[in-house]
């Protein structure tokens, strides 16, 4: 066991740290979260800066350890989060890189890396959330096009996206998992309606997307026809890999800020609250170590991250909610004031046990794939 | 960076696991419960295998290994529910004559408690005025002492490693039972309610493992306190959930679950307790 980093990794960390220290002070102020065009411009600008400095490839080609160091240092320095580029950089991009043809890679990867094109995710449907394979959006083949009809929901960034990674049913007769295909849908195609969904946090984070006889070139299909489920599994395993590294670092920073606030406003004298913060410190320290273990394992096996990510996600999503519950108690009355960033984060944290596979689905994955318990009711 | 044991460390762990399976399997455990008292032959066998001498320098006849290796063998001791003042004897090896070989049994005052006082040859700390408790754990006799005494972080780390091993043990017991026991015409492990209990057993174990292994590598006192906190929780909660998975059987003396739970409670009361760990970690924020 060894928690030290190689010379190459330390060099990367030092160079990145210097670069962040140089560029971050010059960055414009972050736009209001509800200003989608502003967010798009801001996030794309940051991605372009990363591209020009040679850091854009870090999510795809760098070793898992370098990727972890990148996320760790970025969060520590307060760099912008991947934001509107999330789906492109962490879902669609890696999927196209792994499963796409040379033409597809040439068409889509560069614009993602440069922040020129924004992607959104079209997986979930009103009747296909956790049970994704029951999705009903149909793609009918007509010559060199598919004609797509149906609707998608919880589509982050749909309002400003150029492309959508769309999972559709291409063979309604096949068993549920076998009749699906993965398409790159141009969001300016005719027949698409985007309707923003207001979340309980008050933001328009998601949208519903309605598809009415939308033509999509067959050339936009990534992977074989009716092989979309496997292609999607590749995508989702990337999501559960190192996706939370920056967030764990962020939670540890917030915990330190909570302690400072509690000491300043007198809440620190409450032993129950103080001990809760102490416990959370152990929790996030352990989650950081678990991250390092998962990353070093991915590094060693050289493979796509496995079911171990579910272990992390289960515990992290719960811990994040506890952190912001504690924040509300540190704030006292202020915990009820949406002018406070922690109060808003508390609301946002409610999505963590639902998004990207609910905690219940994650427990099924852990029980069936890791512990080998029988599938059943 | 790698938080997995290397080949040598795995070999050491597997060797000790095999020794315990041979010398302290289930029959021996149940025999010990029926006739409590420290088995000196077993103690010497554990000593012969190098358990207590693990950290003693090679020049002085030990194995010259470190905290990581210690954690791995204590994890196995916890999994097997090996009884006795393991931590105190381990820490005394190289200082107290005969401790390293298992000839001398050493206990220590830990907070307000002393385990195995009547069986020990040497006591570290002031046990004057010790009065016996009726220990909840049939395999850990306890005395209470009037004063209190602090312990070094390594003791807490080793206790945490034992808790981790116990958490793994109850996880495996629960999963095995959930696979075999049938109700309503199928294994109970097919029911989500049971499946989710089992998943949480694994999650707790893996979080505790990351914490304990990292604390062994860094030796940072705050990280050790956090590791003890999470390992205590994993051992206690896992034993309780394992008991639940076993249903009525879990509540019987015949099932081994209660032995894990009771030992986990005792270990949680030794070394850095939850309250102390939380205060320590909060103070460092």
Automatic annotation (TrEMBL), chain A:
<keyword id="KW-0560">Oxidoreductase</keyword>
<feature type="domain" description="Acyl-CoA dehydrogenase/oxidase C-terminal">
    <location>
        <begin position="226"/>
        <end position="371"/>
    </location>
</feature>
<dbReference type="GO" id="GO:0016627">
    <property type="term" value="F:oxidoreductase activity, acting on the CH-CH group of donors"/>
</dbReference>
<dbReference type="InterPro" id="IPR009100">
    <property type="entry name" value="AcylCoA_DH/oxidase_NM_dom_sf"/>
</dbReference>
<comment type="similarity">
    <text>Belongs to the acyl-CoA dehydrogenase family.</text>
</comment>
<dbReference type="InterPro" id="IPR052161">
    <property type="entry name" value="Mycobact_Acyl-CoA_DH"/>
</dbReference>
<dbReference type="InterPro" id="IPR013786">
    <property type="entry name" value="AcylCoA_DH/ox_N"/>
</dbReference>
<dbReference type="Pfam" id="PF02771">
    <property type="entry name" value="Acyl-CoA_dh_N"/>
</dbReference>
<dbReference type="InterPro" id="IPR036250">
    <property type="entry name" value="AcylCo_DH-like_C"/>
</dbReference>
<feature type="domain" description="Acyl-CoA dehydrogenase/oxidase N-terminal">
    <location>
        <begin position="6"/>
        <end position="116"/>
    </location>
</feature>
<dbReference type="InterPro" id="IPR009075">
    <property type="entry name" value="AcylCo_DH/oxidase_C"/>
</dbReference>
<dbReference type="Pfam" id="PF00441">
    <property type="entry name" value="Acyl-CoA_dh_1"/>
</dbReference>
<dbReference type="Pfam" id="PF02770">
    <property type="entry name" value="Acyl-CoA_dh_M"/>
</dbReference>
<keyword id="KW-0285">Flavoprotein</keyword>
<dbReference type="GO" id="GO:0005886">
    <property type="term" value="C:plasma membrane"/>
</dbReference>
<dbReference type="InterPro" id="IPR037069">
    <property type="entry name" value="AcylCoA_DH/ox_N_sf"/>
</dbReference>
<dbReference type="GO" id="GO:0050660">
    <property type="term" value="F:flavin adenine dinucleotide binding"/>
</dbReference>
<keyword id="KW-0274">FAD</keyword>
<dbReference type="InterPro" id="IPR046373">
    <property type="entry name" value="Acyl-CoA_Oxase/DH_mid-dom_sf"/>
</dbReference>
<dbReference type="InterPro" id="IPR006091">
    <property type="entry name" value="Acyl-CoA_Oxase/DH_mid-dom"/>
</dbReference>
<protein>
    <submittedName>
        <fullName>Acyl-CoA dehydrogenase</fullName>
    </submittedName>
</protein>
<feature type="domain" description="Acyl-CoA oxidase/dehydrogenase middle">
    <location>
        <begin position="120"/>
        <end position="213"/>
    </location>
</feature>
Automatic annotation (TrEMBL), chain B:
<dbReference type="InterPro" id="IPR009075">
    <property type="entry name" value="AcylCo_DH/oxidase_C"/>
</dbReference>
<dbReference type="InterPro" id="IPR009100">
    <property type="entry name" value="AcylCoA_DH/oxidase_NM_dom_sf"/>
</dbReference>
<keyword id="KW-0274">FAD</keyword>
<keyword id="KW-0285">Flavoprotein</keyword>
<dbReference type="Pfam" id="PF00441">
    <property type="entry name" value="Acyl-CoA_dh_1"/>
</dbReference>
<dbReference type="InterPro" id="IPR013786">
    <property type="entry name" value="AcylCoA_DH/ox_N"/>
</dbReference>
<protein>
    <submittedName>
        <fullName>Acyl-CoA dehydrogenase</fullName>
    </submittedName>
</protein>
<dbReference type="InterPro" id="IPR036250">
    <property type="entry name" value="AcylCo_DH-like_C"/>
</dbReference>
<feature type="domain" description="Acyl-CoA dehydrogenase/oxidase C-terminal">
    <location>
        <begin position="158"/>
        <end position="265"/>
    </location>
</feature>
<comment type="similarity">
    <text>Belongs to the acyl-CoA dehydrogenase family.</text>
</comment>
<dbReference type="GO" id="GO:0003995">
    <property type="term" value="F:acyl-CoA dehydrogenase activity"/>
</dbReference>
<keyword id="KW-0560">Oxidoreductase</keyword>
<dbReference type="GO" id="GO:0050660">
    <property type="term" value="F:flavin adenine dinucleotide binding"/>
</dbReference>
<dbReference type="Pfam" id="PF02771">
    <property type="entry name" value="Acyl-CoA_dh_N"/>
</dbReference>
<dbReference type="InterPro" id="IPR037069">
    <property type="entry name" value="AcylCoA_DH/ox_N_sf"/>
</dbReference>
<feature type="domain" description="Acyl-CoA dehydrogenase/oxidase N-terminal">
    <location>
        <begin position="7"/>
        <end position="83"/>
    </location>
</feature>
């Amino acid at each position: 066991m060894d928690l030290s980093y190689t010379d190459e990794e330390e060099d990367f960390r030092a160079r990145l740290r210097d670069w962040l220290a140089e560029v971050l002070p010059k960055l414009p102020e972050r736009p209001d979260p509800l200003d989608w065009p502003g967010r798009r411009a801001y996030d794309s600008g940051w991605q372009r800066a990363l591209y020009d400095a040679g850091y854009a490839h870090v999510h795809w080609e760098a070793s898992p350890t370098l990727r972890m160091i990148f996320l760790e240092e970025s969060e520590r320095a307060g760099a912008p989060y991947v934001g509107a580029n999330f789906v492109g950089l962490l879902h669609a991009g890696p999927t196209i890189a792994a499963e796409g043809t040379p033409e597809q890679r040439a068409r889509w990867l560069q614009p993602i890396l440069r922040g020129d094109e924004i992607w959104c995710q079209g997986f979930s449907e009103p009747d296909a959330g956790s049970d994704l394979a029951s999705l009903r959006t149909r793609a009918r083949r007509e010559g060199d096009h598919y004609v797509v009809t149906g609707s998608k929901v919880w589509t982050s960034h749909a309002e400003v996206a150029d492309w959508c990674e769309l999972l559709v049913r291409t063979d309604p007769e096949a068993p549920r998992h076998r009749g699906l295909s993965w398409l790159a849908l141009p969001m300016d195609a005719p027949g698409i309606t985007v309707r923003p969904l207001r979340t309980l946090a008050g933001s328009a984070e998601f949208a519903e997307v309605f598809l009415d006889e939308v033509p999509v070139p067959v050339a936009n299909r990534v992977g074989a026809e009716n092989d979309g489920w496997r292609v999607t599994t590749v995508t989702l395993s990337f999501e559960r890999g190192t996706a939370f590294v920056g967030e764990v670092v962020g939670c540890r920073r917030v915990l330190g800020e909570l302690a400072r606030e509690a000491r300043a406003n007198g809440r620190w004298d409450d032993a129950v609250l103080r001990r809760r913060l102490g416990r959370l410190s152990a929790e996030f320290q352990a989650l950081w170590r678990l991250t390092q273990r998962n990353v070093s394992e991915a590094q060693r096996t050289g493979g796509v991250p496995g079911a171990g990510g579910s272990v992390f996600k289960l515990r992290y999503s719960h811990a994040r909610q506890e952190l912001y519950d504690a924040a509300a108690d540190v704030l006292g009355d202020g915990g009820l004031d949406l002018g406070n960033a922690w109060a808003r984060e508390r609301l946002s944290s409610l999505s963590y046990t639902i998004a990207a596979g609910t905690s219940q689905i994650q427990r099924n994955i852990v029980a069936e794939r890791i512990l080998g318990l029988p599938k059943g009711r | 960076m790698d938080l997995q044991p290397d080949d040598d460390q795995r070999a050491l762990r597997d060797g000790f696991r095999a020794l315990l399976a041979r010398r302290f399997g289930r029959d021996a455990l149940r025999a010990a419960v029926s006739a409590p008292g420290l088995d000196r032959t077993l103690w010497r066998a554990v000593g012969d295998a190098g358990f207590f001498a693990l950290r003693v320098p090679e020049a002085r006849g030990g194995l010259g290994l470190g905290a990581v290796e210690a954690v791995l063998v204590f994890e196995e001791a916890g999994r097997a529910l090996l009884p006795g003042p393991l931590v105190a004897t381990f820490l005394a090896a190289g200082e107290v004559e005969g401790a390293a070989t298992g000839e001398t049994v050493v206990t220590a005052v830990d907070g307000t408690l002393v385990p195995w006082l009547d069986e020990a040859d040497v006591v570290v700390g002031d046990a004057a005025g010790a009065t016996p408790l009726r220990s909840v754990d049939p395999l850990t006799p306890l005395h209470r002492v009037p004063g209190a005494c602090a312990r070094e972080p390594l003791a807490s780390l080793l206790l945490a490693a034992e808790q981790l091993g116990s958490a793994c043990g109850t996880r495996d017991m629960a999963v095995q039972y959930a696979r075999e026991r049938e109700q309503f015409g199928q294994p109970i492990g097919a029911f989500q309610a049971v499946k989710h209990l089992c998943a949480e057993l694994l999650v707790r174990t893996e979080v505790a493992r990351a914490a304990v292994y990292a604390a062994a590598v860094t030796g940072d006192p705050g990280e050790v306190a956090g590791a003890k906190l999470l390992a205590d929780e994993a051992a206690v909660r896992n034993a309780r959930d394992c008991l639940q998975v076993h249903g009525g059987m879990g509540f019987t003396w015949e099932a081994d679950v209660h032995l894990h739970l009771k030992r986990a409670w005792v270990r949680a009361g030794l070394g850095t307790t939850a309250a102390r760990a939380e205060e320590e970690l909060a103070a460092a924020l």
